[in-house]
């Protein structure tokens, strides 16, 4: 029963990813005349289809693993990567269409805000844990917990900075952040300074933990034997 429930949940997550990618591509197609304001955040139609199809490899592989090894977090991490990418892809497309093409669609500004902070730090965090836990789902040793916590703190700081930074949204520069916090904290230290410091510290922690996770994978390769190797 545990495996059957895990399989149902894993394949349901895969189906959600397929639906979000399909909806994102549909919105791109019906809104093809929209001129992208931030070209590096938007793909050409052909590349968008290719990237969407390739991204489905993550939830598919994740569902295959999770349905057979439900206690191993590797499969669930793959499912999470697919879900984060699909959510970011859909929310960017929906916000563009709602704010530039069909104003009758609701919550375009808030969906644009959601697309700003969802995905980026979460995908890096998932990559760190995927590398740290591969292949048996356990850390190489307890000492590597500090790397895991550094990645979590880095992702949290980066996400909070993206979510509450005042000014234009990174993914939609034609939209002002509806939840941007502007003010003076004290001693001339403003929220702009706080956001900047959070971004620098968060990304430094994410970069450091990513490099450490890669090192852990190399060390594990040389230490293990048999099937795990």
Characterize the structure shown:
This protein has 229 residues and is mainly alpha-helical. It has two domains: 106 residues; 118 residues. It is built from eight helices and two strands. The protein is flat, with a radius of gyration of 20 Å. It starts with a helix and ends in a 6-residue tail after the last helix.
Q: Outline of this structure?
A:
By secondary structure, the protein is an all-alpha fold.
Radius of gyration: 20 Å
Distance between the termini: 31 Å
Order of helices and strands: HHHHHHHEEH
Structural class: mainly alpha
Characteristic terms for this protein:
2 domains, 8 helices, flat, mainly alpha, two-stranded antiparallel sheet, 2 strands, single chain, 229 residues
